[in-house]
Amino acid sequence: MKNLVILGAGTAGTMMANHLVSKLPKKEWKISIVDQYKTHYYQPGFLFLPFDIYNEDQVKKVGKKFIPKGVNYIQQKIEKIDAENNLIELDNGTLAYDLLIIATGSKIAPDEVEGMMSTEWKKSIFDFYTYEGALALRDKLRDWKGGKLVVHITEMPIKCPVAPLEFAFLADSYFEKKGMRDKVEITYVTPLSGAFTKEISSKALGYLLEEKNIKLVTDFAIEKVDFKNKKIVDYVDQEVPYDLLVTVPTNMGDEVMERSELGDDLNFVPTHPKTLQSIDHENIFVIGDATNVPASKAGSVAHFQAETLTDNILLYINGKPLKEEFDGHANCFIETGKNKALLIDFNYEQEPVTGTFPFAGIGPLRLLKESILNHWGKLAFRWIYWNMLLKGISIPFVSRNMSTSGKNINK
Amino acid sequence: MIKTIKQVELKVNNEGYLTDFSQWTKEIGAEIAKEHEIEMTDKHWEVINWIQEKVAANEPLSIRGIKKSGVIDIKQFYALFPGGPLKVSTKIAGVPKPKSCI
Ligand SMILES: Cc1cc2nc3c(=O)[nH]c(=O)nc-3n(C[C@H](O)[C@H](O)[C@H](O)COP(=O)(O)OP(=O)(O)OC[C@H]3O[C@@H](n4cnc5c(N)ncnc54)[C@H](O)[C@@H]3O)c2cc1C
Fold first, then answer.
1. How far is the CA of A60 from the centre of ligand 1 (A)?
2. A1, A53, A65, A235: which has the highest count of C-beta atoms within 10 A?
């Protein structure tokens, strides 16, 4: 009997368990999945918690419910990966593997920036990338009287790179609805040179910032949070004052990578961008936010990766060459407030452009243009997540590799 | 695109980054630096060498990596290459602009 072990039962790990359970011969392979927590969070929902659009119950479920029968679920903390000896050290015991899938995701590391995790954390400095952070921020916003709201990205890469922009847009509608938009000054502060990294979408989104009267500060590489004087300061001594700082701290892979000497300087695992095999160990594969591949860290990306990875695991087991197939495909809705959203579809090579999706000329969704239908798409995504994505069911008409059909690409 | 520096025809992309590292020389690096109003010193070259070594070893570049490089701290890095130090230094080093993905 051989052992396939999946580390992490978040979006990517759960999908892999569902894909593989029916494809690996039960007599030959035992599949185990390890996660430290009982609860599985729908992280895209964290964006909506602070604005009272979603409640707690809509974003969490018992994780085990999504692990298929026939897969051994181990609720423990992973202490170390001993890649030389094919062993996993858990909180309590060890686990041997023949084949390993790392899906431990990424998380915020606010202590990377001086002054961020200060006495003001969750008082005037908040994150919305964790369940606790999003709830604390909701409570703060409920009776905030207004002032300078600064939405800030510490450094790239971050998961769901559009989430902070969406937060700024939703904040604009939230305060408008409360009749206090004139009491709130919103500033968006980014280390990038534009609202977004890529030229075409940067223009599209920059325009939205203007329309919503959100100030933009670019090329801001934060050095410290001066929490006493309520301002953030960058390496060239630029300062942005705030009353309420909503920051996306540095994102890092789990410390288990550091302890196991498997990660880069952000604890992300060096991974082949097209096959998803680890660079250093043949029998280790990596998926989702835990990789260092230059794709977005997003659930949709993990979903497309899972299809390629499933094929590659089977090829690997059968001693065949791997498919160099994953193209960086990402597909994300961007909430723009007032019940509208944009949609972007792109990959390693192709930046987001305008057009129709998934059908050329027909849509019904429009790329890089605001529409109410896109907003419904985003909200429908929660259902799709719990009922299709996690179970490894393909989304109809959306293929793992990006399609250029319907896209306005200037060749 | 082609850009001519010191009578050498260089292959560059639309942002002015060399696309063929074999065309790079220290002299060309210094000329690109001048376009950014940077007069190269030993410290500048130390950073450029470090960047080129990282790229040759296929390791990604980041501001954080600079902090750990042992060559320079981030504050100095900003002072040496004003206006986006990673963007400017990689252009001078003749290597691709670091990817910061969407
Ligand atoms: C605010 C926000 C908005 C987002 N919006 C979107 C969106 O609109 N669309 C989209 O596609 N994506 C979105 N995402 C991103 C998406 O949630 C992630 O990309 C996705 O969850 C990544 O899946 P993963 O399996 O790699 O990591 P995760 O889902 O984070 O799972 C990692 C798992 O590993 C476990 N783990 C880690 N280390 C250990 C250890 N040492 N021991 C035991 N267990 C461990 C964790 O407990 C966790 O359960 C958003 C994320 C956030 C935070």
1. 13
2. A235
Q: What is the pLDDT of residues A104-149, one digit of tens each?
A: 999 999 999 999 999 999 999 999 999 999 999 999 999 999 999 9
Give the residue among A158, A108, A325 at the shortest CA–CA distance from B102. Answer: A158
- The tokens for A157 are 């890469």
Give mean pLDDT, residues A292-313: 96
A227 close to A119: Cβ distance less than 8 angstroms: yes
**Tokens 């325009």 -> residue:** A207
Strand, coil or helix: A8: coil
Chain A: which residues have CB within 8 Å of chain B?
155-157, 161-162, 192-193, 196-198, 201, 219, 221, 223, 235-236, 264-266, 292, 294-296, 330, 344, 346, 351-352
Beta-strand relationship, A93-96 and A87-90: antiparallel
Residue of A50, A269, A48 lying closest to A139 (CA atoms): A50
Confirm if A98 and A4 have CB atoms less than 8 A apart.
yes
b (16+ CB within 10 A) / e for A136-160: bbbebbeebeeebbbbbbbbbbbbb
Determine the residue of A260, A289, A300 to mutate for testing ligand 1's pocket, defined as the one with the most ligand atoms within 8 A of the Cβ atom: A289
pLDDT digits (tens, 9 = 90+) for A79-97: 999 999 999 999 999 999 9
- Per-residue confidence band for B102, with pLDDT thresholds at 50, 70 and 90: low
B59: which chain A residues are within 8 Å (Cβ-Cβ)? 264
Instruction: Give the model's pLDDT for residue B39.
Output: 96
| B60 in contact with chain A, both atoms CB, cutoff 8 A | yes
Q: How far apart are CA A133 and CA A141, in angstroms?
A: 12
A410 in helix, strand or coil? Answer: coil
Nearest to A161 among B82, B87, B102 (CB): B102
Q: Are strands A244-248 and A147-153 parallel, antiparallel or unpaired?
A: parallel
Query: Cα–Cα distance between A161 and A291 in angstroms, integer?
Result: 16
Structure pTM?
Answer: 0.94
Q: How far is the CA of A258 from the centre of ligand 1 (A)?
A: 19
Question: What does the pLDDT look like over A11-45, one tens digit per residue?
Answer: 999 999 999 999 999 999 999 999 999 999 999 99
The DSSP code for A387 is I
**Min CA distance, B68 vs chain A (Å)?**
9
